[in-house]
Write a structure and sequence with these properties.
The complex is a heterodimer.
Chain A (H helix, E strand, L loop, with lengths): L8 E5 L4 E6 L7 E8 L6 E6 L4 E2 L4 E4 L5 E6 L8 E9 L13 E6 L1
Parallel strand pairs in A: 1-9
Antiparallel strand pairs in A: 2-7, 3-4, 3-8, 5-6, 6-7, 8-9
Chain B lengths: L3 E4 L2 E4 L5 E7 L4 E9 L6 E7 L5 E2 L8 E7 L2 E6 L8 E9 L8 E2 L3 E5 L1
Parallel strand pairs in B: 2-11
Antiparallel strand pairs in B: 1-3, 3-8, 4-5, 4-9, 5-6, 7-8, 9-10, 9-11
The chains are: A mainly beta, B mainly beta.
Chain lengths: ~110, ~120
């Protein structure tokens, strides 16, 4: 799997948009970008994933650059409950038994 | 949505004993389940991949005789930590990949915190 690079930590004011960047400059054409988050002492939670088009769901938006070498996860109105470690992972889609490999992620602190 | 449960959520045991952790997919069938562990302030580390009806595939450095994995059905995988020692104390997390149209994603259980005294 291609490696990703994320900032170690970020702060965001409550109610503002949180923009979490991820670099994946060696991504292959058949690899998707996945985002998960892990709230303290819980299992990771799926957020969103995409291949090349921007994606939006009830939790977040995913913006992928045209060259696919980087992406940004956007939490439009961050709340205190969004404080977590956010992981950006690239992986071949519909790949059956291929597991998710976690890097160090970005620790997002939402501040009141 | 897809729900994965783990039991127990936490366990404390004496050194030398064995501990079994269950991972269940509650509303979907999972042909593949994964086991991870996480030490404090570190990221998740993949331990093994478990396929229903076949032997698990272990990551390099993970002792298969110490961490026994059984995936007996499409909704249940178990991890048994045999002869546990204090260095096995960790947060163990399973995930499951559903059969069918949701195969792009893995869903994670809430984790089991193991403390070996």
């Amino acid at each position: 799997d291609a490696k990703t690079t994320q900032p170690t930590s970020m702060d965001c004011a409550e109610g503002r948009a949180a923009n979490l960047p991820c670099n994946h400059s060696t991504i292959s054409g058949n690899e998707y970008v996945y985002w998960y988050r892990q709230i303290h002492s819980q299992g990771p939670q799926y957020i969103i994933h995409g291949l090349k088009n921007n994606e939006t769901n009830e939790m977040a938006s995913l913006i992928i650059t045209e060259d696919r070498k980087s992406s940004t996860l956007i939490l439009p109105h961050a709340t205190l409950r969004d404080t977590a470690v956010y992981y950006c992972i690239v992986r071949v889609g519909r790949s059956g038994n291929t597991p998710l490999v976690f890097g160090k992620g970005t620790r997002l602190s939402v501040i009141a | 949505g897809a729900v994965v449960s783990q039991h127990p959520s936490w366990v404390i045991c004496k050194s030398g004993t064995s501990v079994k952790i269950e991972c269940r997919s509650l509303d979907f069938q999972a042909t593949t389940m994964f086991w991870y562990r996480q030490f404090p302030k570190q990221s998740l580390m993949l331990m093994a991949t478990s396929n229903e009806g076949s032997k698990a595939t272990y990551e390099q450095g993970v002792e298969k005789d110490k961490f026994l994995i059984n995936h007996a059905s499409l909704t249940l995988s178990t991890l048994t930590v045999t002869s546990a020692h204090p260095e096995d104390s960790s947060f163990y997390i399973c995930s499951a990949r559903p059969r069918g149209p949701l195969t792009d994603t893995q869903y994670f259980g809430p984790g089991t915190r193991l403390t070996v005294l």
